[in-house]
Specification:
Blueprint: H1 3-27, E1 36-37, H2 39-46, H3 50-62, E2 66-69, E3 73-76, H4 81-105, H5 108-126, H6 130-146, H7 151-173, H8 178-193, H9 197-223
Antiparallel strand pairs: 1-3, 2-3
Helix pairs in contact: 1-3, 4-7, 4-8, 4-9, 5-6, 5-8, 6-7, 6-8, 8-9
Length: about 220
């Protein structure tokens, strides 16, 4: 890579890092719904300039994590519970296609990685390590999508997972439900690693049923 290419790539890498960091702050509740984001505080915490922060916030706006208010800054949005049901409707057919393609197309290295992730998920549950679980869960989504070798599917389902991440952290990872979710994820991972698309799809269907029940319960509690 030439010096000019390096200079061009560096801002993008910094912006990507800022995007992931700010998203994690919102997902885990360190930046609370309804709060205004201080660009200056983020610059100090993330040790980067104003431009990467603003580029990251624009990406988060498109994903519904923040609202941008001119002259006021960025406001962290509240979780839209009904939107989660809509996302699950979109996710169901995508998940079925994803796990079937992954079971067929995953490389030997990816299959081994899936087995390791399943073991790590179970270990995180045994230790009640919810932050570890949440990180492994994200890695699970990524490797299942990557194994499909379908760029459009990877992009689409990644967007769905991203828009649901804050909900799942609040209503699954931070609740007693995370062990049940982990168990279903493990079954999907192991079925894909074994090349059994039907078994993977069946367990993915059960996982989506479970997530739908959690979402509807959250909506009912919010209405009480």
């Amino acid at each position: 890579m030439t010096d000019s290419e390096t200079r061009a790539a560096a801002p993008e890498l910094i912006s990507d890092t800022a995007y992931v960091a700010i998203q994690n702050l919102i997902v885990t509740g360190r930046l609370r719904p309804g709060s205004m984001i201080s660009e200056n505080e983020l610059r100090e915490e993330l040790n980067c300039g104003r431009t990467p922060i603003r580029e990251a916030l624009q990406r988060l706006k498109l994903e519904g994590f923040v609202e941008i208010h001119p002259r006021r800054g960025a406001l962290v949005t509240t979780i839209n519970l009904r939107q989660q049901l809509e996302l699950l409707e979109v996710r169901r057919p995508l998940e079925d296609i994803m796990v079937r393609l992954a079971a067929r197309r995953a490389t030997p290295d990816q299959r081994e990685r899936m087995r390791l992730l399943a073991n790590e998920l179970e270990a995180a549950v045994d230790r009640d390590d919810r932050d570890k679980y949440f990180g492994i869960n994200r890695a699970t989504h990524e490797i299942e999508a990557e194994a499909t070798k379908n760029a459009m599917l990877i992009k689409t389902i990644s967007q769905v997972h991203t828009m649901s991440r804050r909900f799942w952290y609040s209503f699954i990872t931070a609740s007693d439900s995370f062990a049940d979710a982990a168990g279903l994820h493990c079954k999907v991972l192991r079925a894909i690693s074994d090349g059994d698309g039907d078994e993977a799809a069946q367990n993915a269907h059960l996982l989506l049923d479970y997530l739908e029940r959690v979402t509807k319960d959250a909506i009912e509690r919010a209405l009480d």
